[in-house]
Give the backbone structure.
Amino acid sequence: MPSDAAVHVVDDDVAVRKSLAFLLASEGIPVRLHESASAFLDEEMKGEAGCIVTDVRMPGIDGIELIRRLKARGVTLPVIVITGHADVPMAVEAMKEGAVDFLEKPFGDEAFIATVRDALSRHERNSHQGAQIAQIQARFEALSERERQVLDGLVAGKANKVIAYDLGISPRTVEIYRANVMAKMQAKSLSELVRMALLIDAS
């Protein structure tokens, strides 16, 4: 990653900001803290390297609106959103708006650092995206119709029970289809699966 790349943590919770700052600093990753989305937007960000970590639910400007405003300003820093379990649909919406990943609370230190490092190196992989999309498309085409229906439900941010009701099958059956989808798509997490689905949808 570029030597001047920094992680911008945008969160209204001071304890979260300090905790993430300590974790990033312990890994030698430069970090800058912002107490709100509006405070972050007051800074000139064009041309900067790095990434943004923001809570999806904040007073005033939330994480989704922050992404929209950054896009409108031409700011292309990768955005990672942090979400509680109940806010996964919001996180999926954030990814549709352009976020590169989301982390469900509580998340481990290693998972957080890995996600941040992935975002920081994202620009280096952009040239390989075409080949990646082709691979993902091939995996998608190997899914059965029912598996695709379950995938659609997951991308929409629906819980297993809701998907089961929509499709007229049991939640246990949805879990089986979900596991099959994860395996066939070679996705290690729900956020990675959503990212894959959005990539082939946009291609």
Observations:
- The first helix runs from residue 14 to 26.
- The chain has a mean pLDDT of 89.
- The domain at 127-202 is CATH 1.10.10.10 (Arc Repressor Mutant, subunit A).
